[in-house]
Description:
It is a single chain. The chain has two domains: 5-270 and 305-342, CATH 3.30.470.20; 271-300. The protein is built from ten helices and 14 strands. The protein has helices spanning 44-61, 82-86, 114-121, 142-146, 186-193, 198-218, 261-270, 272-288, 306-324, 334-342, and strands at residues 5-11, 19-25, 68-72, 94-99, 107-108, 111-112, 124-126, 129-137, 164-175, 183-184, 222-233, 236-240, 250-253, 256-257. Strand 5 (107-108) and strand 6 form a beta hairpin.
Amino acid sequence: xxxxxxFRIDEPATTADLGxxxxxxxxxxxxxxxxxxxxxxxxxxxxxxxxxxxxxxxxEENHIPTHYEGVRLPGHEGTLDLGEALSTxxxxxxxxxxxxxxxxxxxxxxxxxxxxxxxDAGENYLIPLEIVFRNRVPVGSSLRSRTDPADHGLxxxxxxxxxxxxxxxxxxxxxKYEEQDRYLDREEADRIAGVADIDQLEELxxxxxxxxxxxxxxxxxxxxxxxIECLYHDGQIRIADVVGTFDENRFSYDGQQVxxxxxxxxxxxxQPEWVAAVGEAKERASEEGVADWKSLCEVSPQPLDRSVIDxxxxxxxxxxxxxxxxxxxxxxxxxxAVDAVRDL
Length: 344
């Protein structure tokens, strides 16, 4: 089980063969790696499933291999493609996927044992990396503290005080299963990837970014950044998890965020004590070599006001309608939904 979607195994993977299972999307949300927050956002799960399925079908049409097999609806037998599901008047909440192996990642002392992970994984495994792509570097991005503009071919000695649009997207590698995500240099990322080719992972990330960016432009959305996760099976790398949703990626519309980033920034403004406590707990965990940083956090998040929940529901629904170019959800226009969250 993950923080905002449930995971079901129908046929387990083996050392040689992929299995079969499903993601069941919930209306939970998570910010700052906390896991399930006190509230739910109505219909959020259905928007993520719809947008994710739409993108997987786009990738398959562009000959990019994925683990996606279709969607399921309550009361309907078998697996449907997204169009078949939506023709019933119901947005899906369950995505059928091929499964690979996910071995345990031992934590010993102050480090994770990736050699043990790959010894158990063989050549059928979820690659324990997130491959991050960036089309824009907003103010406050961690990239600004970790790198200089010149590292990315930009003609500037310091990062400017406004967002920077990139002529060529930046691709980075981050850990996936460590309690605190950390960015990796290419050599360490290559080691953690195992037998999967690091250059091919970057190539796939750029291809997915291109397709999602192009689709976003059709809806007047700006695709700022996102990530992919991948599996390796029988010598082939496939896109896994979910791609191009308002939880995995950041989009904006007329200068306003249209993604989970809205509620993330809302917590920064309205619950700064909790946000600070999360940061302190993560730092302390790193210093003490503790994997479970949440056990060190002395402050818990507070519930959202109903008006914020309603505004976020409309943003997810209106944004999905715009992205897939269809009236899937009963929602205001994207302009109206965006205006409503500007004042949060």
